[in-house]
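Researcher: We're teaching a course module on how sequence relates to structure. For the next exercise, students receive a sequence and then see the predicted structure as tokens, so they can try to spot secondary structure elements on their own. Here is the exercise chain.
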Amino acid sequence: MNYLLALYIATCVMQFIILTNITIFNGQWNGITMWLCTGMFIFSTAIFISSRSNKRSSNE
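Model: And here is the predicted structure for the students to work with:
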């Protein structure tokens, strides 16, 4: 999978999590929402770093 597509999907999931927390749960699950979004951010960052290091090693 293209890493830009993975980053876009992760961003959409994070926005959906925040929207669900605000509209359905009235902001009562802010801690869980922040934890999930932070986990998605770390996962996306790992995918981005991995893809960049793979590009550099294939160019050499």
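Model: If you want an answer key for the exercise: The radius of gyration is 15 Å. The chain has a mean pLDDT of 89.
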